[in-house]
Design goal:
This protein is α/β, with parallel strands linked by helices. The protein has a single domain (19-180), classed as Isochorismatase-like (Rossmann fold, 3-Layer(aba) Sandwich), CATH 3.40.50.850. The chain has ten helices and six strands. Helix 6 links the parallel strand 4 and strand 5 (137-141). The chain is globular and about 50 Å long. The relative contact order is 0.16.
């Protein structure tokens, strides 16, 4: 049987309007014991996905654990793109067991959820497995998560993937939302985020635009 290809995106690709982003426990105390990724890269990647979501108007939930009594403030890289947005502070390690968070999930009404946060084996595994069991489609931004060791982080990803979660990276998240350089309304914002947070790819954009006056697409 022959198959006819069509110039249309696959249904498994994310779009700005089909999901919610949940950013969990990007806090000082949680980062101190994180060793699977260095703090600079972690903050960079967390900031990248936060700015991507804000740029594309993706509904985003920001949640902390014991902010005032133990874990400290959320990274400014995560909160700055959402000025004035209230953080949901919890006592539960599993975000999915917090009624205030679930109220926001239900109010947003998306069946696709993208997670990032600390630690992978606790604060990401808990809500991911819980959401999958309740019928949600779950994506995890692997390089915007961290754990007490590489082993802990990797086994947590394995466990979530075995349950059906889909891993991705921070830069992939940004570029998947843009997907076409002809989308001029978000072109400058996307390339600006990539220049600031996209590492060597961002440097390449700066070089191409400065030296060669190039533009994607």
């Amino acid at each position: 049987m022959s198959i006819t290809a069509k110039p249309t995106p696959g249904s498994k690709l994310l779009t700005p309007k089909d999901h919610a982003l949940i950013l969990i426990d990007y806090q000082s105390q949680m980062s101190f014991a994180t060793h699977s990724i260095d703090a600079v890269t972690l903050r960079n990647n967390a900031g990248l996905i936060a700015r991507a979501a804000a740029s594309f108007k993706v509904p985003t939930i920001l949640t902390t654990v014991a902010e005032k009594s133990f874990s400290g403030p959320m990274f400014s890289e995560v909160t700055d793109p959402f000025p004035g947005q209230a953080l949901i502070d919890r006592t539960s390690m599993n975000t999915w067991e917090d009624a205030a968070v679930i109220k926001q999930v239900n109010a947003i009404g998306k069946t696709r959820l993208v997670f990032g946060g600390l630690w992978t084996s606790v604060c990401i595994v808990g809500p991911s497995l819980s959401a999958i069991e309740q019928g949600f489609e779950v994506y995890v931004v692997a390089d915007a998560c961290g754990d007490v060791s590489a082993e802990a982080h990797n086994r947590a990803l394995d466990r979530m993937m075995q349950a059906g979660a889909r891993p991705m990276t921070a830069l992939q998240y940004l570029l998947e939302l843009q997907r076409d350089w002809a989308r001029t309304e978000t072109y400058e914002s996307t390339t600006g985020i990539a220049k600031d947070f996209g590492g060597s790819y961002g440097l390449g954009l700066i070089y191409a635009k400065t030296m060669l006056h190039a533009q994607g697409g």
